[in-house]
Amino acid sequence: MADIKQSDKPGRYDFTAIEARWQRYWEENATFRSLNPGEPGADTTKPKFYILDMFPYPSGAGLHVGHPLGYCATDIIARYKRMRGFNVLHPMGFDSFGLPAEQYAIETNVHPAVTTGKNIEIYRRQLKMFGFSYDWAREVATSDPGYYKFTQWMFARMFTSWYDEECNWTGPDGKENRGRARPIEELVAALESGRWGVDPALQLVRKPEASDRRMWSDLSPGEQGEFIDSQRLAYLADVMVNWCPALGTVLANEEVDNDGRSDRGGHPVFRRPLRQWMLRITRYSERLLEDLDQLEWPEPIKIMQRNWVGKSTGGEVLFPLADKWTIENGRWKCLDPDVKLEGPLSYQNFPHAIRVYTTRTDTLFGATYMVIAPEHELVEQITTDDQRSTVEEYVAAARQRSDLDRTADTKEKTGVFTGAYAINPVNGQRIPIWVADYVLMGYGTGAIMAVPSGDTRDFEFACKFDIPIITVVKPTGDSVESRISALACRPDSQSAAILARLGQVCPELAKSLAKHPPQGDMLADESVRVLRDKSCIELLADDYVKNPIAWGEAFTGEGQSVNSPGTAQVNVPGKVCVLDGLPTAQAKTTITDWLEANGVGHPAINYKLRDWIFSRQKYWGEPFPILHSEDGGTIAVGDDELPVELPEMTDFKPTSSCPEGADELPEPPLGRAKEWLSVDRGGQQYRRDMNTMPQWAGSCWYYLRFIDPHNEASFCGPEAEKYWMPVDLYVGGAEHAVLHLLYARFWHKVLYDLGHVSTGEPFQKLFNQGMIQGFAYRNERGLVIGPDEVDERGEGDYVLKSTGESVARVIAKMSKSLKNVVNPDEVIAHYGADTFRLYEMYMGPLEAAKPWNTRDVPGLFKLCQRIWRLIVDEQTGGVSPALTDEEPTEDALRGLHKTAKRITEDLEQLKLNTAIAALFDFVNLMTPLAKRSRAVIEPFVLLLSPFAPHLAEELWQRLGHRTTLAYEEWPTYDPRLARDDEVEIAVQIQGKIKARLIVAADADEEAIKEAAMVEDRVIQALAGKTVRKVIVVKGRLVNIVAN
RNA sequence: GCCGGAGUGGCGGAAUUGGCAGACGCGCGGGAUUCAAAAUCCCGUCUGGGCAACCAGGUGAGGGUUCGAGUCCCUCCUCCGGCACCA
Q1: Residue A862 domain flag
Q2: What's the CA gap between A580 and A573, in Å, rounded?
Q3: How many Å from the CA of A924 to C1' of B31?
Q4: Which nucleotides of B are covered by protein (CB under 7 A)?
Q5: Which positions ≥6 away from A103 have C-beta within 8 Å?
Q6: Of A203, A392, A393, A1032, which has the highest C-beta tally within 10 A?
Q7: Structural domain contains residue A396
Q8: Is the CB of A525 less than 7 A from some atom of nucleic acid strand B?
Q9: Strand B at less than 7 A from CB of A866
Q10: What does DSSP assign to residue A516?
Q11: Which residue has the higher pLDDT, A786 or A976?
Q12: Residues β-bridged to residue A559
C-alpha cells in the first residue's frame, strides 16, 4: 500500500490518536448504551428505531473489507437517527455455530468452542476499530448455552404445537389472521371431549356428522400417538440426503459434484433416505405470501420470496389405471374384484388411480401420456413384467441425480415406459404411463398429465419418444402478434425456419419476402406489414393448430380451446365436456366444474415451498431437546432442563466404518457421546437425539434476543419486545434474499401465533447491500497472480512486475484462492477508520456490487484532511484564524442549507454515496474562503458526524463543546435557502440543444416560452420553419417542435 | 435450466425517476508555490473534426414508443447473486 505523506506540523490531522481517544470516550461514557423501558433513565416518550445488521459468522479469516459495508451504512443511519431524537437500538452479535469451525476441529482436534471463541474476539476487536455505535452490552453468540437454551425452547414449542388451519383470530397487533399454531394440548382436549374426531386415514375431522369419523377414545394408544405426531409443527420424516460413507457424513448439494462424487476427496456419494426433523413451514405458505405486501422490502426480494413459495392455482385430476377400470354405459366400472365400492365414487374414495396436479386443466384433452416420478409409490405396482428391469434400472439411476440436475432444461429428457396405461377421465382415451426424472416427487403429487402441445418439457419428451401431439389451445391474435414482433426485430437462424414456415402458410407473405428480401438481419418493412395483418395472423394460428411439430415448439400461452373434446371416444361418465371456442380462463373453470361433478377432480392450490429439513448430522450446532423412547416414541425435554448442552468431545471425526457401504446408516458425531446419549426418566430409558440444528436456527430469532439479552427466565421480556419490535431497518447481503429471511419470518410467525411476540412480521424494512469485489489477475496460462506482483502499464494494460508478461485483470468476489482479499486492518492503520468508512460509502450505491480499489482511498483521506484544515490551524494546532463569529456570506449560508438538504434527503434513502459527494461540494465551496463563519461550520460538523464520527467529535470539541455530539440536534434547513433563485433552462429545437437561458426559479411556462422565443440562436435556428408545438418543462427545458 | 439483478469516460460512479448525459472522487495533463521535492492550491480532462465560436457522434447490441429515452417496450449478448445441508 502506498504510504500517504502526512504533514509533520503540530496541528496535523492525527487520526490514530483521535480515533483511539473517541473510541475510549464512547466506551467510558457508555455513549451508545440503549435502555429498555423500565430501566432507570429510559425515556419511552421518544420514538424508537431498531436498526439491525445481519450478524456475521466469525470465520477464522477475520473480517475482510466486504463485511463492514453494511455495518458502516447502518452505523451512519443509527447516528443520524439519534440526532433526530430517536431511541436507537443498534446491536451486534455472532452467528457462531457453523461448519467451518467443525471442519477445523476435524483437521486439528481443536474444539469448535475454542476456535469460535478466538474468532469472536478477533471479530469484536476488528468491529470496534471502525467506531461503530453498537450497544456492546447486548452482544450475543448463538453457540452460547445461555442463548441456545432458548433456541431449543422454541423448537420444543414447535414440537408441542400443531397448526389449526381454520382458526380465525386477531393478533395483538390488530392483524386478522387465518390459521394459527396452537399448543397440541388444545387439540388433544378437543379430541378427548369428542368435539372433534379422526377419519380412517388419520386426518382430523371437525364436523360431528361426518360418517367415517372415529372417536378419539376408540383409537389405540399407538394410533393416538401417530396422529399427534402427524400434527406437530416439528416432525420426523424420511428425506433423501447425500450420504458419503467414505467421509462418514451427509453432504450439502454444493459439496457434491456433477458426477455424484464428493468435492472433498472425490468419494462416491449416495442419495438415500434418512430420518430427519422437519418443520412444517408449508402450513404458513399463504401467510408468508400475503404478509409480504405490508413490508417495505426491495421489490425484487419480494418477488424472489413469492416465487420461492410458488403458489399456483389449478386442479387435481384422477387418471384411473386402464387395467383396473373400464367405462360401461357411461359409468366407471372397477375390474378389481377386491375393491368393494360403498356409495358413489368420489375423488376421495377412487381406488387405483393416479392423482395429478395441473395448472392447465383446460389442456386435459391434449394429454397424450402421463409421467410419474421415479420415487412414486405406484411405479412398482403398475410396471408390467416385460418393462420391469428397464424401469428398475432407470429408477436406480434417477435416484442418484439431484433435483437441480434433473430439472435443468439443458439436459436431454430421459424416461422409460412402464408398460401401463391410464384412462384420460375426460375422453376415456388410454394413454401410456412413463417414468421420467423431470417429474419430481416433491412437487404437486409426483405425477403429471403430459400435454406436449402446451408444455415445453412435455413437447421435447414427446418429440424424442414419438408420442402424439394434439394441439388444444389455439394462439389468439395478441400472442401471435407478439411472436411476430419478435421475428420482425430479429430473424436469426433459429427464426429462419419459422419464417420459411410462415411463407408456406401465407402466400402473400411469401410474395413479399421474395420481392423485398430481408436486408442483413432485418425484415423489410413491407414484409413486417404483411405479417402483422390480421388475416395473416389468423392463418398462422390455424397452421399452428394443425402442425405443431412444424413450429418446433409448444404454445404455453393462453388462447382459445380447440380439439376439446377432440376425436376420441367420449363415452365417459356424465355429460360430455365441451371446451371448444372458450378462452383459457373460462375453459379452466368449465372443465374443473365438470371434473368435480364427476368425482374425478377438483380445483386445487399448490405451493413449491417444501417443509424445512431441520436436522444436521453434525456436532457444532444446537442439540435437539428431544428424547427417544425405546419403542420409538419421542418426548420433549422439560423446559426446566434446558439447555441441553453439547457434550464435551475430543474427536470430531465422523465415523467411516464401512467406506463402501451405501447402505450403512449415517451416524452423527453425537452418537459417540454414549454417556450423554442415555437418559433415565422415572426408570424409563431414553436416548437423546443425535442430530443438531442447522445454522439457520440461531439466526431465526437473534433480533429478539438483542432486545433483552441477559434475561434468563425468557428469551425476551414482553414489555421490551413490545417497545422495540419490529426491526425498523434490517441491512444485509442479497444472498440471504430467500432462505434466511423466509425461515426467520416463519419462525417469527410461530412465536406470534403462540403469543410470544406482538408483531406478525419481524423486519419492517429491508435493505440489501451489494458485494465488495476485488481485482484479481491471471496470466495467460490462467495462473492467479497476486496484486502485489502486478504493475499497471498504461490504460488497462497490466504486467507482471518481474517479467513484464502481460496479465488480465478480472473483477471477482474476494477469496483466498484469487489472492484478492483486502484486509481492513491495514487500510485503517494507513488512513484511519473515518477514511475507511467514507471510502466504502462513497464507492457507489449501497446495493450495488463494486470492486475495491485501494488507489481511490486517498481521495477520502484528503477529504478528512481538508475538513480538518477548515477548522484547525495545522501550524499551531489551535482553531484556524479563518474561523469567525461573523455572519456568513449569503453564498456560504446557501451552501450550508443546500448541503443539509442533500445529506438529509440522501440519508433517508440510504444514498450515502451522493451524501458524501455533498460533503465534497461543501468543502470545495468553503476552502477558498478567507473567512469561515462558525454559523455554517458548526452545523457542517454535525452533518459530517454520522459519516466520520471520530473526526467530527474531535472538531466539535475543538470548536469549544464539552460533550459528545452524538445527541446534538440534527441541522435543519430552510427550503428557500436550499434552492437557487435562478435556474438555467436548456432550449431545444427538435430535441437538440440550441441555447441556454437563465430564468427565475419560479418562472411559469409562459414566461419561459417567451424568453426562449426571443433568444438570438433560437430565432436563427427557426428561420424558415413553422413552429408546430412548444413543450415547456418548468425549471428544466423548452423543446420547440418546428419544421 | 429456473428466479432475481446489473451493463454509462482511462477507473468508481452521478443524472430530481421520461427532460441539459458524465455531478463528486480517482487517475492523467498543465499551472502556482518551492532552491528542489512531497504536501497544498488553481485550471483542464467523453470521442471525432475545427485556431475558434461551433459542428457531428455518444449510456452492452439491434429494433420500437415519444416532441424528447441512460431511464419505458420487444429481441439478443455479457457479467453477478440465489436455487432449499456454504453462510
Answers
A1: yes
A2: 19
A3: 19
A4: 1-6, 10-16, 19-21, 23-27, 38-42, 55-56, 62-63, 67-69, 74-76, 80-87
A5: none
A6: A1032
A7: yes
A8: no
A9: yes
A10: S
A11: A976
A12: A475
Strand partners, A883: A932
pLDDT of residue A1035: 83
Q: Which of A256, A291, A228 is nearest to A741 (CA)?
A: A291
The answer to whether A727 touches A738, Cβ cutoff 8 Å, is no
Cis status, amide bond into A623, omega within 30 of 0:
no
Protein-to-nucleotide distance from the CA of A1014 to the C1' of B1, whole angstroms: 62
Provide the whole-model pTM: 0.91
Q: Residues A536, A425: one domain?
A: no
Interatomic CA distance for residues A304 and A737, integer angstroms: 7
Same domain, A316 and A443: yes
- Residue A737 CB in 7 A reach of strand B: yes
A628 three-state secondary structure: strand
pLDDT confidence band for A3 (50 / 70 / 90) = very low
Residues 100-129 of A with CB under 7 A from strand B: 100
Helix (H) or strand (E) holding A128: helix A112-128
Domain residue limits at A494: 477-557
The ipTM assigned to this model is 0.93
Proximity of residue A262 CB to strand B below 7 A: no
Residue A784 and residue A881 in one domain: no
Count Cβ atoms below 10 Å from residue A61 Cβ, excluding itself.
13
- List the A856 CA – B15 C1' distance (angstroms): 22
pLDDT class of A243 with cuts at 50, 70, 90: confident
The residues that bridge with A656 in the sheet, in sequence order, are none
Distance between CA A530 and CA A523 in Å, rounded? Answer: 11
Tell me what the pLDDT averaged over chain A comes to.
86
Nearest Cα to A90, choosing from A731, A761, A772? A731
Beta carbons within 8 Å of A106's beta carbon, 6+ residues apart: A652, A653, A654
- Range among A159-173, A463-477, A507-521 with highest mean pLDDT value: A159-173
> Do A936 and A1020 fall within a single domain?
no
Up-side HSE of residue A34: CA atoms within 13 Å toward CB?
33
Count Cα atoms within 13 angstroms, Cβ side, for A261: 6
Strand partners, A604: A314
Can you tell me the distance from the alpha carbon of A616 to that of A275, in angstroms, rounded to the nearest whole number? Answer: 11
SS (H, E, C) A400-446: CCCHHHHHCCCCCCCCEEEEEEEECCCCCCEEEEEECCCCCCCCCCC
Say if residue A389 is in the same domain as residue A418. yes
Whether residue A628 has pLDDT greater than 50? yes
Cell numbers at A863, concatenated? 477529504
